[in-house]
Each structure stands twice: as C-alpha cells, then as structure tokens.
Amino acid sequence: MGGGDADAGGEPAAAQATLHIRCTNGSKFAVRADLGSTVVAFKAIVAESCDVPAPQQRLIYKGRILRTSKP
C-alpha cells in the first residue's frame, strides 16, 4: 500500500541522477548514480564506463576538484 519509495529491504530509495561526464580526450558519456554517493563510490561507477581507473581520475564540478575525505 506504500508509495513505492522504499526498496525491498524497507529502506527509503536513494535519489538517483544521470550525470554527464566529459573526458579530457573529448569523449562524453552518462552514468546513473545515487546522489548520496561518496566521491570514491562515484569514481568506481565512472571507472566502469571508461578506461581510466578510479585512482587516476580527477573529477571537476563547477571548477572545483572533488576530493575524497581523509580519515
């Protein structure tokens, strides 16, 4: 009877977005990711769609480099 906002485990579904990626070589592609994902998790998703391993990626959003937080 619910509104479909929960996954099979009863947890609220995370909001997702389609993000458009442009590589330095000019190639472009899109990936879907949870908006609550960490930078590390997002880099792993991007690595599945391109030839650049996550540790070698530099993600830039609105002129700022997205960094992983240090423990």
Automatic annotation (TrEMBL):
Any GO CC annotation of this UniProt entry: cytosol
InterPro entries: Ubiquilin (IPR015496), Ubiquitin-like_dom (IPR000626), Ubiquitin-like_domsf (IPR029071)
Name of the featured protein: Ubiquitin-like domain-containing protein
A molecular function (GO) term: polyubiquitin modification-dependent protein binding
Species of the source: Miscanthus lutarioriparius
One GO process term, biological-process aspect: ubiquitin-dependent protein catabolic process
Residue stretches making up the Ubiquitin-like domain: 17-71
